[in-house]
Amino acid sequence: xxxxxxxxxxxxxxxxxxxxPFLISGEEGFIEVPVPAFFIVHPRGTVLFDTGxxxxxxxxxxxxxxxxxxxxxxxxxxxxxxxxxxxxxxHDIARVDYVVNSHLHFDHAGGNALVPNARLVVQKREWExxxxxxxxxxxxxxxxxxxxxxxxxxxxxxxxLFGDGSVVCVPTYGHTPGHQSLQxxxxxxxxxxxxxxxxxxxxxxxxxxxxxxxDREAMLRSLELLRGLVQRGARLVFGHxxxxxxxxxxxxxxxxxxxxVARADVRP
Length: 268
Description:
Layout: E1 7-19, E2 30-42, E3 45-49, H1 61-65, E4 73-75, H2 82-88, E5 98-100, H3 106-109, E6 119-123, H4 124-129, H5 133-138, E7 152-155, E8 159-160, E9 167-171, E10 180-186, E11 189-193, H6 201-206, H7 216-231, E12 235-237, H8 242-248, E13 254-256, H9 258-264
Parallel strand pairs: 3-5, 5-6, 6-7, 11-12
Antiparallel strand pairs: 1-2, 1-4, 1-13, 2-3, 8-9, 9-10, 10-11
């Protein structure tokens, strides 16, 4: 079945500063990165891929981040949350049909509460890890971000959301137990939203993992899978690559296609 026309948009929902080894082992100092989220318009529904930071982080970082709070500095001004970004572009967040979470960390599922009417699409193994006290702790999850009573579709592997090949959940386990990326077929080619399966271009090129990983071997396999998608013509949007994102993100809701991502991939 041929894919339907799909419009893909990106937005910045805050920024984080953290120890550099959180993204790449062996580095020193700190790194500041964007927190992206993505909005997809399909003829049969609208989709958010990740939801950014929780609004409560502005006033109570410790409640939102728990034991991770001391390690992060947060830049999340009013107007940078998901609902405000969509409203600025004329979209009502209450009418979004699906939220696809790459995983359940605070900067990817933190805005789920802002999308109360959407169906949550998550890998089954990720959801299970997010419900067990031991794996909640070991993965630095906080259930106040995601265990909110949404109607839920739990996946066991790849899933074609609309049945036409245009929006496909791609398992990229490793960063967390059930991490997934999203492959979107735009008018000018496939774009893969990596999430934290691949933080930076350097992650893909050097296969250098962060210090904290749920499953190192699984994450390396996921990076090889992403390399294979690139070889077949897909363009990757990395999870937190400031250099790439600064070339892609223009305005509250930036149009993204394979051509835009290709231009952003050109080295300065």
